[in-house]
């Protein structure tokens, strides 16, 4: 056994109680066992990758796709359907080849940097209104509930043309879809049926009376070949964007502020130099030790990784967060450096399946940080870091609350 080997099959995600710090196993795995056998919440076995070079290589390889309803692929979640990566929603969206590229091209033009810059004033205005409400109330307040959750929900609902008033239903439906260990199959099935029915009704309404939103454009539009999206793909696309468009960003807003406020020197540096906002956002994305599950990939053919031959049929779990702490890829990888540049982190993935909404997520994170620096320079955590609690049982990572005072 090489120095640093764990010497056992780990349960994955690796359990940890620290809200902001990575499990110590990450560093030991990168050094001694970068291709490690793990047991998933489903009980199925998989292979965990933790080094930057290996994770980037597998994510960028178009041969390796999400494990969607493949009999050989590992199930992720502790329920019969296997979780979001094995779901009917994922199956309804083209996963490979030209069909996936066509779908992605139709979606991605709604999430360009140019479009996000045009949206920026409205996002900032909404952030200010939400912050007005928080500051008018009592301190301490939960920054996640007051700003981190409602802002990205409002943005993605506006893009999709769905009412933000339904956000509590969206949150519950999203959580059941992202389940690892929290919900049973019966509850998941009932929630997802309601989610599909809701989105199907919304698609039908947009087909009858199109608006100026993304779903209306997808319904009425065609790709370069003149093909349009099926209703099943439209419903799944709406679901996927609604889940990804608010769940991950809402959690990241809370984690970003906890990271920046946990050491007052970070916040003071940003107050002194607002030009660091963009690089600070990239650095907290890299530094995030509580991102959730990572990205599974089904290996449809044999591949050698770090001297280990992985046979066809392997489910590889790419831990982007562990890779983002790789000392061979980032100088002082375990130090939060708000001015780090360049910063080629893997928080949004890489290749054909990289996050289609990353420009939106970056914009929202930057706006939140700018508004809080401008409006609440005295902001601080209202509890010790050790009192922050992680979100448990879901494929996304986050903090349950982010109590702050000012």
UniProtKB/TrEMBL annotation:
It comes from the Bacteria. It holds the Pfam family p450. Heme binds at residue 355. Keywords: Heme, Iron, Metal-binding, Monooxygenase, Oxidoreductase. InterPro entries: Cyt_P450 (IPR001128), Cyt_P450_CS (IPR017972), Cyt_P450_E_grp-I (IPR002401), Cyt_P450_sf (IPR036396). Its cofactor is heme. Pathway: Antibiotic biosynthesis; vancomycin biosynthesis. GO terms for molecular function: heme binding; iron ion binding; monooxygenase activity; oxidoreductase activity, acting on paired donors, with incorporation or reduction of molecular oxygen. Involved in the coupling of aromatic side chains of the heptapeptide of vancomycin. PANTHER family: CYTOCHROME P450 BJ-1, P450, PUTATIVE (EUROFUNG)-RELATED. This is Cytochrome P450. The lineage of its organism: Bacteria, Bacillati, Actinomycetota, Actinomycetes, Pseudonocardiales.
């Amino acid at each position: 056994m090489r120095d640093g080997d764990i010497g056992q099959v780990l349960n994955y995600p690796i359990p940890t109680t620290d809200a902001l710090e990575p499990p110590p196993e990450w560093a030991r795995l990168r050094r001694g066992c970068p291709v490690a056998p793990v047991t998933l919440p489903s009980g199925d076995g998989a292979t965990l990758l933790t080094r930057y070079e290996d994770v980037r290589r597998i994510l960028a390889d178009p041969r390796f796709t999400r494990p969607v309803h493949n009999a050989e692929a590992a199930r992720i979640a502790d329920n019969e359907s296997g979780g979001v990566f094995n779901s009917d929603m994922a199956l309804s969206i083209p996963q490979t080849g030209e069909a996936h590229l066509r779908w992605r091209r139709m979606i991605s033009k709604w999430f360009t940097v140019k479009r996000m810059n045009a949206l920026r004033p409205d996002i900032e205005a909404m952030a200010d209104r939400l912050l007005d409400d928080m500051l008018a109330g009592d301190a301490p307040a939960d920054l996640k509930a007051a700003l981190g959750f409602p802002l990205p929900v409002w943005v993605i609902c506006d893009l999709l043309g769905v009412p933000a008033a339904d956000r509590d239903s969206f949150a519950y439906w999203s959580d059941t879809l992202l389940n690892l260990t929290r919900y049973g199959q019966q509850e998941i099935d009932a929630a997802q049926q309601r989610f599909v029915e809701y989105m199907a009704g919304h698609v039908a309404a947009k087909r009858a009376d199109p608006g100026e939103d993304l779903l209306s454009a997808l319904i009425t539009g065609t790709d370069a070949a003149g093909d349009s999206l099926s209703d099943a793909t439209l419903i799944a696309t709406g679901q996927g964007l609604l889940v990804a468009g608010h769940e991950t960003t809402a959690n990241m807003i809370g984690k970003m502020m906890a990271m920046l406020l946990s050491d007052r020197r970070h916040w003071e540096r940003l107050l002194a130099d607002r030009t660091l906002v963009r690089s600070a956002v990239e650095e907290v994305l890299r530094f995030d030790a509580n991102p959730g599950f990572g990205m599974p990939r089904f290996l449809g053919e044999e591949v050698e990784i770090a001297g280990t031959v992985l046979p066809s049929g392997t489910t590889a779990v790419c831990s982007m967060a562990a890779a983002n702490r790789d000392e061979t890829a980032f100088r002082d990888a375990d130090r939060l450096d708000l001015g780090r540049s360049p910063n080629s982190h893997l928080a949004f993935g890489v290749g054909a399946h990289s996050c289609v909404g990353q420009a939106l997520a970056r914009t929202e994170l930057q706006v939140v940080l700018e508004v809080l620096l401008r409006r609440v320079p005295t902001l601080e955590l209202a509890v010790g870091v050790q009192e922050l609690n992680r979100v448990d049982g879901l494929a996304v990572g986050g903090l349950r609350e982010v109590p702050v005072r000012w």
